[in-house]
Amino acid sequence: MWVVKLGGSLARNGQLCSWIQAVTGPHHYALTVVPGGGPFADRVRDMQLRLQFDDSTAHKMAVLAMEQYGLMLAGLCSELVPVSSKAALLRVSRNGNIPIWLPSRMVFGRDDIPGEWEVTSDSLAAWLARHLKATCLVLVKSVDPTSGDSGYNEHLSVPLLTLQEEGIIDRTFGTFARGGGLDVRCVGPSSLTGFAKALERGVAPGTKVLLTG
Angle of helix 55-76 relative to helix 38-51, nearest 10 degrees? Predict the structure, then answer.
């Protein structure tokens, strides 16, 4: 099992449909898609700033924003099937479709997932990947993590701290991703063609994220 997180910002950069086509193309591994929050989560931020409700409430609303984005993705592609439980996720995968995760049912009320803005869809994708014992997590971003990323060059790597300092990955990500040998990759706009080729070849795509050091 590989987990692919499609960033919410892709909705604004004109590549979203191309990334969906790449994800649903030929691939060697079972895939699960985690949606970002995108413009739906941005609206939650705007409303919290205006009305000053607490972070716990805002976090729940942001998780539901991920579900809105996920339903939108499923509406754009019938091969993406919304799921809200591990059992449904595995069933959809066995049937040859690609599950797209609606997270609220599995994450609300969990003690190991703080209800705060710092826990973004990146961290929730890492949590799910470890929950599923996935071997690879790919974070699809609207910016390139490194220059010259060809999509499946296993020699490219970047420290997690660097991506956190640049605001590409959230600050809590390491807490959820470390342990269990999860291979974390990050790809951006210039990697779209290479990403599709990597999935077809069964090669982990993009820049490797170094979780230690």
Answer: 150
Is residue 210 pLDDT above 70, yes or no? Answer: yes
Domain of 10 in residue numbering reads as 2-210
The residue with greater pLDDT, 64 or 146, is: 64
Instruction: Kindly indicate the confidence band of residue 13, based on its pLDDT and cuts at 50, 70 and 90.
Output: confident
Is the pTM here over 0.70, yes or no? yes
- pLDDT category of residue 136 using cuts at 50, 70 and 90: very high
Residue spans of alpha helices (H) in 7-144 = 16-23, 38-51, 55-76, 86-94, 104-107, 121-131
Specify the CATH number for the domain of residue 123.
3.40.1160.10
| 120 exposure class (CB count in 10 Å sphere: 0-12, 13-18, 19+) | buried
Report the sign of the C-alpha dihedral through residues 115, 120, 123, 127, in that order: positive
DSSP state string for 8-48:
GGGGGTT-HHHHHHHHTS--SS-EEEEE--HHHHHHHHHHH
The total of structural domains in the chain comes to 1
**Is 3's pLDDT higher than 90?**
yes
Token pair of 123 as six digits:
């961290």
Torsion of CA 84, 88, 93, 95, to 10 degrees: -140
